[in-house]
Design brief:
The protein is an alpha+beta fold. A hairpin with an 8-residue loop joins strand 1 and strand 2.
Amino acid sequence: MDANNNIIAIRKIDVALAHQAFVELMERTENILNTEAAANPNEYRQLNSITLEPCAVEKIKLACDNSPFDANEVKLISGQRFPDIIANEYYGVEVKSTKYDHWKSTGSSIVETTRVENVDDIYMLFGKLGGNIPEFKCRPYQEVLYDIAVTHSPRYLIDMELKENETIFSKMGTTYDDFRTSPDNISKVRRYYKEQALQQKRYEMPWWITSDNVETAHSFNLKLWNTLDVKEKRNLQIKCMILFPEALNPAPSKTKYNNTTLWLCSYNQVINPNIRDLYSAGGKITHVNKKRIKTPAAQVFNVIVSYSDEIKEVLTHPSPEMCQMIEEFNPVLLQSKNMYEAWLNICCDFAKKNNVDLRKWIAEKPVFTFSKKKVEE
C-alpha cells in the first residue's frame, strides 16, 4: 500500500474524506457478511455474541483489500473496552447481535468510561441471526440508538432500521458527541424522562441511581417506612417537605403526594403506603406551640412549624447532594438568595388561603439549640 494513500495520511489531509473511506469499508464488510451468510446460513446461525466478534474482524480485514485501511491494524479489543474492534487507531466497530428475526437489541452503556482513546468514528455491526437466513447491517453508531433502558446500568437500545430523526439524541435535542462528552449525561437523561412524563401528564420518576450523578450509596433492597428508625424518618421527611412543598398544601388533591411517594422509592428505596399520614395524621389541630388557636387548622401547618428549624438549617447549609436534588425537583428555590425564605413563602401562600399566620406561629416557636451537624444524607 502506498504510504501516501493509507487512512492515516488521508486523515491528516481531510478527516471527512477519511470518514468516507471508513463508510465504504463498512459497506464492503456488510456485503461480505451477507454474501457468506446466504451461502452458509446454518454456520452463521450458530454464531453468538462472543464468536461473532472474531468473525467480524476477519471480514473487516478482507474488506481492507484495495482500501486505505491496513488489515494488520484491525484488532479485536472487546472485553471491558468500547468499541469491540479498532481499525487504524481512530476507527471503531461495536458488534451486537440477536438470535431473533428482528433488528433490535440492547446496546452498550451510555457512560463510555471504557472508550478506547483516540477512537472518534464508530460503526455498529449488527447480526440478525434469526430467521431463515442470518443478515447483517452496518451503520454509524449514533444513528441506531433510539432509547435508553436500565439493566445494571443505563444502556442504549438499538434499532438498525431507525430513521434519522428518531434517535435518542434527536429526541433530547443534542448530538451523540455532545452527549457522550458531557460530564453530567446521566443527569440529562433523568431530566429528559422526567420531562417526558410531565408532558404526558404521567407521574413517573427514573428509579435508577448511579455513582455518576449521586455520590451516596444506595441499598439494593426496598424498605417499608414503618421499619425505619425515628431519625431516618425525620431526615427523609425534611427532604420531602423541601423538594415537594405541594404535599404541604392542605387543599384536597389526588396527586399532591405522588412525587413524594415516587422520590422516596426511587431515590431511597423506601415504600410508604400511608404517605398522607406524614402531613395530616391527627386531623385538625386546636393548639400550636401549646397555645389555643381561634379556629382549628389543618395538621400540616403544625408539621411545618415542627420541622421549620431543621429545614432552615438544611437550606442554609445544603450538602452537594441536596443542592442537586433541589435543582432537579424544586429549582425555584435556587432563584432566591435565601432558599429557606423562598421555601417558607410557598408554605405561607398555602397558609394564607386557610387564614393561618404561619410566620407568626414559627416566630413564636420555643427556641432550642439546634445541632450544627448537617442532616445525614
